[in-house]
Amino acid sequence: MARLWLLLSALTGFTGVALGAFAAHGLKSRLGPEHLAVFQTGSHYQLLHALALFGVALLALQAPGRLVNLAGGCFALGILLFSGSLYLLTLSGIAGLGIITPFGGLAFLAGWLCLGLAAWRLT
């Protein structure tokens, strides 16, 4: 599983940087400041959790377990739901997509909880 988490870390890190640059350069003239800030929030959280996935990959090499893998899954789901909904919300203008965002935030919280529990169980 460590390989999967490392690959997801690289993919989400790469796309997070690309989307951040796209927002700063390509969307600057197309979106208002409020929508641009929402898009950048999605990119910011994506990049933070790409690093979290990297940590999960390293931990999976040293202390593999169910909680470690659950943390990685929650982080990946959080990126998809939280960041993805913010990207779609700003690009499509469909305000109803905002209802998805909190579920991504809950997935992030669950991932951090699982990671903390996995750390607590380390000997």
Please provide a brief summary of the model:
This protein is an all-alpha fold and 123 residues long.
Annotation keywords:
single chain, 123 residues, mainly alpha, elongated, transmembrane helix, membrane, DUF423, transmembrane
Task: Record the SSE blueprint.
Layout: H1 2-26, H2 33-62, H3 66-92, H4 101-120
Q: What's the gyration radius in Å? A: 15 Å
The proportion of strand residues reads: under 5%
Provide a count of the helices.
4
Structural class per helix/strand content?
Answer: mainly alpha
What is the ordering of alpha helices and beta strands?
HHHH
- Main beta sheet strand tally, sense and closure: none
Number of strands: 0
Tally of domains: 1
Q: What is the global morphology?
A: elongated
**Averaging pLDDT over every residue, what do you get?**
95
Identify low-pLDDT runs: none
Helix fraction by DSSP (H/I, runs of at least 4):
over 70%
